[in-house]
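Sample intake sheet
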Amino acid sequence: MSESAGLLARVVTLGFFIGTMVWVFVGLRKEYVNLEAPSKRFYHDLRLWTVLSMLPHVIVYLFL
């Protein structure tokens, strides 16, 4: 694979990951995601944990 194709693949992949994280955090309603949450505290928001769990993937694609 040429170097430019590898760079394009990395940019597209990062775009999908980052786009999904933005959509989860901004696009999904808090009330919909946290129907059965034990409390309304920020650390019970599943949108936050989804973004945090995807960050290692983004870091791997950026630096490895």
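Comment: The chain is about 75% helix and 0% strand. The helical segments are 3-27, 30-33, 46-63.
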